[in-house]
Amino acid sequence: MRSCVVCSGELTGNQRKYDSEECRKKQGRADWIANTYGITLEEWALIWAQQGECCAICKRKPRVKDDGTEETFHLDHEHRIKQAGPVRGILCPYCNTRLVGRLKSAERAQALADYLHQPPAVIALGRVVIAPGRPPKKRRVTRRRRA
Ligand SMILES: [Zn+2]
Ligand SMILES: [Zn+2]
Q: Which of 88, 92, 133, 139 is deepest in the core (most CB within 10 A)?
């Protein structure tokens, strides 16, 4: 009996390697992860379990999309030599691109944490000044034209 290379299910008809579209996709993802990050799906799962199955920074879980599939989280890695560098962890798209992608270094992230914990304004003035913020915009009444 010929069997599916992913789940060992029996191959029928003109199926060559996979017994289902799902298995073909799973293999495609495994190949992509192996080629891009140098880890196996099993290793991906170990990292995912280690960080509590959520984004390692904001702790958010992947959203389930309208079509029932889960949002894809990114396997974050350092970019040392062009695209290559050590794998760090799994992040939501926001934390990966907007936070880690912008901060780039642990030093910058530490500086941000220091800034938030000990704002220079408070140290300089010796007190916390509450900024009133911008005055609210006047509401413009927009009338919809009737069709
Ligand atoms: Zn299969
Ligand atoms: Zn996140």
A: 92
**82 band by pLDDT with thresholds 50, 70 and 90:** confident
- Please tell me the distance between residue 37's alpha carbon and the centre of ligand 2 in angstroms: 20
pLDDT in tens, 90-146: 999 999 999 998 988 899 999 999 999 999 999 999 999 999 998 888 777 666 666
Distance 13 CA to ligand 1 centre (A): 14
d(CA 23, CA 17): 9
CA 62–ligand 2 middle distance (angstroms): 9
Give the integer Cα–Cα distance in Å for 83 and 45: 23
**Ligand 1 centroid, distance to 17 Cα (angstroms):** 8
**Class (C level, CATH) for 39-125:** alpha beta
The ranges assigned to domains in the chain are 1-38, 39-125
Question: Which letter, b or e, does each residue of 76-102 get, where b requires 16 or more Cβ atoms within 10 Å of its Cβ?
Answer: bbeeeeeeeeeeebbbbeebbeebbee
**Which pLDDT does position 141 carry in this prediction?**
66
